[in-house]
Amino acid sequence: MNVQRVQIPYSPRRQFMPFHERTKRWFCIVAHRRAGKTVACLNDLQKAALLCERERPRFAYMAPFLKQAKSVAWDYMLHYSSPIPGIQVNHSELRVDYPNGGQVRLWGADNAEAMRGIYLDGIVVDEPADQHPRIWPEIIRPALADRRGFGGFIGTPKGHNGFYDIREIARTDPDWLYLELKASQTGLLAEEELIAARKTMTEDQYEQEFECSFDAAIVGAYYGKLMRQAQEEGRITRVPWDPRLLVYTSWDLGIGDHMVIWFWQINNGEYRLIDYYESFGNGLAHYAKVLKEKPYVYAEHIAPHDAAVDDLSTGKARSQTMSEYGINWRIMPRVAQVSDRIQITRSILPLCWFDAEKCKQGIEALMQYQCEYDEERKIFSDRPLHNWASHPADSFGEGARGIPNQTMTPPKRQRYSNSGKGGGTWMSA
């Protein structure tokens, strides 16, 4: 058997040697910008694809968006695989096939549904803080199960979110490798470059991007400070359903049957977010069934303006279809500016209490909802970034617009009083 030696143009940085030499199945790398984590992981995936002895091994790199995966990683893949004889490159699928039958493919979390049903021998999830938190448990983790594939997360912090939760597990679980690479410690960036960066960045920006701080405010987040305030004031906690109060729902109708529903109660100047539901790929009958199976007595169901638009598949407006299922939406007028809805949301967030467990996914979305960054002008734009957090934030915003404000009184038969301490909040009811 002839063996051909091939020189790959990759020299691992010493900071990543623990990663390349790992024996653990799972890993988490929190690293500063320009540390080289993407290059290290792509070369690790390529090596795994070449050396894996399973039949038709499959490895993947997933970024928040497919176009991001292409711009960030595809040139690297082409560069580091080019010396290998017999490879086949599929540019349309961002895939490299190796002579032994192995494969490395780039994916985007914006179309994670396309990964359902595949198997994987290993995956690297890049910037998980910008990806929908359901993708890992519902799509990726099952794909690794039958072949006991490895999985890892790499990125830069963006507050206390799903990536933070992963990092907390990785720091203490013996089955995980954890690397934290701060610019002040790695020596990978020149000191004068870091000094210059400090001059043009806020302290939060610098701490997040270069010092791996999960406690810095999320850059460009609309509600980051208000949600942090809710945490500090103990308003993200256990908020049980009060059967003496009616329940309002607010909706967002996303593309491809993607639905988000917040469940609200109001009392004595408080907005209580008692429940949250989100799903994808189900018809309207599914959501009507979800509402009817809950024990709540509803006041109103508040939907965005596009609920009145005809569904091409049925020829009927979705509001009409829901009415036939027994759910009558109150359709809100279209906002003149998205900034109007954002401002209304900001005005009520200091009055909101969130059930930490039932609303966990929605809370994370509100923390992550942020404006776009204009790469050419190097400034934040006035448009929201459209990602997984958009639908929950929009749904919440419709509720902020449509649910009676704190100066209004709930229906008389639902009203209650409390003479104890705490001002009549649910905590003292």
Keywords:
429 residues; alpha/beta; Rossmann fold; Nucleotidyltransferase, domain 5; eight-stranded mixed sheet; seven-stranded mixed sheet; 17 strands; 32% helix; globular
What do you see in this structure?
The protein has 14 helices and 17 strands. The model is unreliable at 407-426 (pLDDT under 50). The longest helix has 16 residues, at 66-81. The chain is 32% helix and 22% strand. The strands form three sheets. Strands 3-4-5-2-6-7-1-8 form an eight-stranded mixed beta sheet, sandwiched between helices. Strands 9-15-12-11-10-13-14 form a seven-stranded mixed beta sheet. A two-stranded antiparallel ribbon has the order 16-17. It has two domains: 14-210, P-loop containing nucleotide triphosphate hydrolases (Rossmann fold, 3-Layer(aba) Sandwich), CATH 3.40.50.300; 224-414, Nucleotidyltransferase, domain 5 (2-Layer Sandwich), CATH 3.30.420.280.
CATH superfamily of the largest domain: P-loop containing nucleotide triphosphate hydrolases
The chain-level structural class is: alpha/beta
The CATH topology assignment of the largest domain is Rossmann fold
Helix content: 25-40%
